[in-house]
Amino acid sequence: KANVLDHSLNGYRLCWPGNVPNRIRKLKINAVDQVWVGDITYLKVDGKWRYLAVVMDRYSRRIVGWHLSDRMKRGLAMEALRRAIALRRPPPGLIHHSDSKRIRASSRAA
Hints:
Blueprint: E1 5-9, E2 12-16, E3 35-45, E4 48-57, E5 63-69, H1 76-88, E6 95-98
Parallel strand pairs: 3-6
Antiparallel strand pairs: 1-2, 3-4, 4-5
């Protein structure tokens, strides 16, 4: 059974399912704002490590929201999603898919 957390963001209902299968794997995507995918990476900016969260529209492959921070904060990905929603105002039924694995600390080359 799924463990679902309900949350509201700018009037949109967000749910975080627990052990739910990937819903977009077999979905036919034929328009923008049907599926967004998110990810976080790190990069060096002016000699310092920064964390970048992005939200991309799966159909158009365009970045629809992003957020850059000097620390890996809990709300990093949520801020990118918040910005995407504010910019695009997606219709009901949008699926936002992101890697749900925990981020592990690792050493980085300087």
